Structures are given as structure tokens and as C-alpha cells.
Amino acid sequence: MNRIRKSKVEKIISQLEDLKSQIDDLRDEERKQWERAESGSDEEDSLYDNVYSFEDAMSGIEEAVDYLNETIKEIGV
């Protein structure tokens, strides 16, 4: 039983690390979009579309983290 829990926890930790990496990538992309907009190389509408896409992605990531937290609680870790 402990071996199963350990395996599930390791998998969850790995998924959380992947999510953290995705969040960092999204933040970098958002920063680049703002820099391009400030330099005048992007149209304003495109920038807003990208920001909304970023917010949608962050929402999805937050849902995944919530799911993983619930899974951790269920397996009793």
C-alpha cells in the first residue's frame, strides 16, 4: 500500500513540476507580448487576445492543481 501511495505522490509531484514549468513559460510569453506591444510591433487587439489566452491557460492550470490537491487528499498523504 505504501508503495502505491509513494508512486502516486511521485507522479503528482512530477505533474506539479511540469505545471510550474508551463506557468513560467506562459509568464515569459506574456512578458514578451507586452514588450512587443510597448515597442509598437504588435497591434493592440492581438495583445489583448494573447493576454486572454494566457488567462485561460492559467485558469486551466489552476484547475489541474486543484485536482491534484484533491487527489493527494484522497490517497491520504
Morphology: elongated
Number of DSSP helical runs: 2
The helix/strand series, from N terminus to C terminus, equals HH
Distance between the termini: 12 Å
Uncertain runs are none
Major sheet characteristics: none
Q: How many individual β-strands?
A: 0
What proportion of the residues is helical, as a percent range? Answer: over 70%
Supply the helix-strand structural class: mainly alpha
Amount of beta strand: under 5%
Average pLDDT confidence is 76
Query: What is the domain tally?
Result: 1
Q: Please, what is the oligomeric state? A: single chain
Any idea what the radius of gyration is? 17 Å
Written description of the protein model:
- This protein is elongated.
- Helix 1 packs antiparallel against helix 2 (44-74).
- The longest helix is centred in the first third of the chain and has 38 residues, at 2-39.
- The chain has helices spanning 2-39, 44-74.
- The chain has one domain (2-74).
- The protein is mainly alpha-helical and 77 residues long.
- Helices cover 90% and strands 0% of the residues.
Topology:
Elements: H1 2-39, H2 44-74
In short:
With 77 residues, the protein is mostly helical. It has two helices and no strands.
Which descriptors apply to this entry?
elongated; 77 residues; mainly alpha
